[in-house]
Amino acid sequence: MGTRAMTAIRPFHLAFxxxxxxxxxxxxxxxxxxxxxxxxxxxxxxxxxxHQVVAHLDPNLDRAIAARNPVDGDDVPVPHFGVVLTMDxxxxxxxxxxxxxxxxxxxxxRIRFEGQPGEQAxxxxxxxxxxxxxxxxxxxxAQLFATT
Length: 148
Fold this sequence. Notes:
Largest sheet: 4 strands, mixed
Strand content: 35-45%
Number of helices: 2
CATH topology: 2,3-Dihydroxybiphenyl 1,2-Dioxygenase, domain 1
CATH class: Alpha Beta
Organism: Tistrella mobilis (strain KA081020-065)
CATH architecture: Roll
Keywords: Plasmid
InterPro entries: Glyas_Bleomycin-R_OHBP_Dase (IPR029068), Glyas_Fos-R_dOase_dom (IPR004360), VOC_core (IPR037523)
Order of helices and strands: EHEEEEEEHEEE
Protein name: Glyoxalase/bleomycin resistance protein/dioxygenase superfamily protein
Shape: globular
Number of domains: 1
GO molecular function, one term: dioxygenase activity
Low-confidence stretches: none
């Protein structure tokens, strides 16, 4: 069941595998600015813009990007996850990532579908375990599911 309402959205939860929890913590807290929640020796909760993402230790992880699909001239990694930010949040994150010498870019900050329905700012990065993350923003949030 889907809804297109942009109010009262509940936090999303995602668990994902990582190779090293301390390296992961350093990236999600130090680079992305996430807060932390509960944790154990095998996992840690991160507050990613109000959403609960949980890094679970998998020392045997083989995180080569399995596939890429063409989207508006870019090869988008599959799988990936991320957050739809406000445009101000997106610009601040893009600037922070551009200033970080260690950022592992997949797709640098750009405008996708320019002048078309669903026009959006987007960027893709890899975390230290090779998980692909997308952060996007719209000048008009009503464009999130726009088709015309």
